[in-house]
What we know:
The protein is an alpha+beta fold. The chain has 4 helices and 14 strands.
Amino acid sequence: MTSTGEASRAIPRWRPLLAGACAVAGLALTTQAAALTSIGQGAFSASATKITFEDLPGDNSDIPPGYASAQGIASFQGATESEVYADYGPVLPGVAAAAGLGLIGATWGCDATCGTGFTLSSAKNQVGMFLSSNSPMTVQVTALRNGVSLGSVTPSFAAETVGFVGFQDPGGIDQIIIGENTADVGSINQLDNLLFENTGAGPRSGSVTQVPTLSQWGMIALFALLSLVAIFVLRRRRQ
């Protein structure tokens, strides 16, 4: 017969450590997965700030420094010109108009590897934008706060269509980086109708997709590794 003290000493020390590590990994994974989410246009309220670029002359005109600063834009990166949709051919102007994008947007793309983006004067819980081109488009869009990536998505849109990318994060988003169009490198593409706002409510319509961050992928790997170790050790003890 084993005494209580002996039974306690017989419990392997790795078990409580492993259980604790798994619990911490699971908690961290759940916490981070609930942060940045991908949202649709319907998640924004009618009072969200909207930057339409319609007050610019278009047709390869430089976006002036300080543009839309009164509406909350600190600066644009890469998108240095405005452009009329009519320069993309006869189809895209009608598609853009039907989507409510007007006649003018901001361009990005070049003969090398060029993206664009914008920085907000203060972080907002929800940030979104419309993307379009007369070429097929596959582009990485990343949300940041204080220079740190919160996560990214890489949507693909057909030529002559308008797509939407939106993010929500309870801690706020103050920068968006849009990469090169890898489906047609060197093409000129259009960014339009930027939306951003602070809201304590969740998305108002449409599905919500969790956006994995690099740290979240790390926690996934750690959790999987710990689970494999636990299975291996338990099997060894049963032999």
